[in-house]
Amino acid sequence: MDIITALNNFCDYSKYMLGYSPDTIKRYHLTVRLLLRHLNVQVVEDCTDSKVREFFFHGRQERHWAPNSFITYHKSLAVFFRWCVRQGYLQSNPTDDMEMPKTEKKLPSKLKKQEVLRLLEIAQNYPYPYTFQRFRNHAIFATFVYAGLRKKELLNLKMVDVDIMNQSIFIRQGKGSKDRVVPMSPTLSGILRRYIEQRNRLKKTCPEFFTSLNRNMGFTETGMKRLVEFMKKVSGIRFSVHKLRHTFATLMLEGGCDIFSLSKMLGHSDIKTTTIYLAASTEHLRSQMLKHPLNDFR
Hints:
Shape: globular
Order of helices and strands: HHHHHHHEEEHHHHHHH
Largest sheet: 3 strands, antiparallel
Oligomer: single chain
CATH superfamily of the largest domain: Intergrase catalytic core
């Protein structure tokens, strides 16, 4: 079976039958193409166990793949070859029984409270050329910090998803194609309400909640990247959007939020994913240790 044809059929199947997200399909496609460039094979049957193992060995030895990169590539190829086996293109999956490298268990990095407050202060009070930028940028960073949204979830927000009256944000088709509702605090509600007033003042009518300055269209991923780089430069704080999400989770735990509720807010399918923040929050661990029943004995 021609491997390019098989790859295209696999991507179509993943999209239309399995409902995988565009990002997931893109990752599968790029990983298989990376394998093909290295192996220089034309048909699926030529992807033997030894050749695929050599590809991973090359990645670790010559390309210096980190363990997590190795595992990500392996997962993508395992899914593709599993599909090939079911289609009868291969007798067995060449990624089976492959040893995985050990990964470092790093705790999620987060910002200090003072750094978060400084980011929000700069986002709100920087002397932008246009007033709208002040309200929009402040609202964007406040949404990350007060609601813990992923970047794509924030960019995909629609006007109908933000309910100021009931103080809730509807996340449609988040990671894993799961919908969820995230409650918003009165602080965030007030910030978003003031942004909406500015949005209406400029007569923005596009369905996206966060909009471009000069066009009646949604704020783009490129625009977000530029905004983050700008904020890093003017604040002197090294951060990423994902670090803001880690910061939200840790601050919520330190504020007394239970792990089950936090897991729901973050949209984690497995609460085990959320528990890593327990280890990352020294303050939370300290507060729990104070509950030891023998602490009052001297």
